[in-house]
Specification:
Shape: elongated
Radius of gyration: 20 Å
Strand order of the largest sheet: 1-2
Number of strands: 2
Strand content: under 5%
Helix content: 40-55%
Length: 105
């Protein structure tokens, strides 16, 4: 499996978790994922992450492949992962420690 395939599996897993899928739904999705042809030569990947002999790692082809796989395993269309969902949220800069009088130490 390539890094792109692993990324795709991660996105599908993320969608299953964020949808709060029931155990039965997870099993059904996992069974269907296991039956997909994950080889580079599979028609499943033509026109999205595979072009010729190259595997594309860009976001758009990966999103297209994700949508195709999600449809094949009957994952809800609400589960689409947008660029925003994949953005890391930075926390606020921590405040310096203060003493009991509220003065910075």
């Amino acid at each position: 499996m390539t890094a792109t395939g692993l990324n795709l599996i991660g996105r599908i897993g993320h969608s299953m978790i964020t949808l709060g899928a029931r155990k039965e739904s997870w099993k059904d999705c996992a069974d269907k994922l296991g039956k997909l042809d994950w080889s580079r030569q599979s028609d499943l990947w033509n026109g999205n992450i595979v072009q010729g002999n190259r595997i594309l790692t860009m976001q758009v082809p990966l999103k297209l492949a994700y949508e195709k796989v999600a449809a094949l395993i009957n994952l809800s269309p609400q589960s689409e992962i947008s660029g925003e969902a994949m953005t890391v949220v930075k926390s606020e800069t921590p405040k310096p420690p203060t003493n009991t009088d509220g003065e910075t130490v």
